[in-house]
Amino acid sequence: MLFETVYAAAGEAGQGQTNPLITFMPFILIFVVFWFLLIRPQQRRQREHQEMVSHLKKGDRVITNGGIYGTVIGVADKTIALRIADNVKVELAKNAIASLQPRKDEE
Fold it and tell me: Are 72 and 52 in contact (CB under 8 A)?
């Protein structure tokens, strides 16, 4: 008798069909929130960084990802030469540049 009641309740619950769009709506909303809060801003920052790196020129002051301050002395396709001290020059990948230092007259 107990099992008949359980089967009857399960059968009644299965009668109503829900719209698949309503079922996936929470997942769609979560994706939209992630898009606007995480993915889109990261793409914008990456695009701005690529633009900054592509416009580097001789004499610009930069900071590397390792925290080293230097002055650009040469620019190649994928690398950049920095002077980090007197008679100390290093060659880095362009993507290793974290940011551009403002010039003293711009501050």
Answer: no
* CA neighbor of 61 nearest in space, from 71, 75, 74: 71
Classify 52 as helix, strand or coil: helix
Residue 60 neighbours by CB distance under 10 Å: 19
Domains along the chain with CATH numbers: 1-55 (no CATH), 57-107 (2.30.30.100)
Question: What is the per-residue pLDDT across 28-82, written as a single tens digit (0 to 9) for each?
Answer: 999 999 989 999 999 999 999 999 999 999 999 999 999 999 999 999 999 999 9
Spatial contact of 72 and 56, defined as CB atoms under 8 Å apart? yes
Give the number of other Cβ atoms within 10 Å of residue 90's Cβ.
Answer: 15
Handedness of CA 23, 24, 26, 29 (dihedral sign): negative
Is the C-alpha dihedral spanning 75, 80, 85, 86 positive or negative? negative
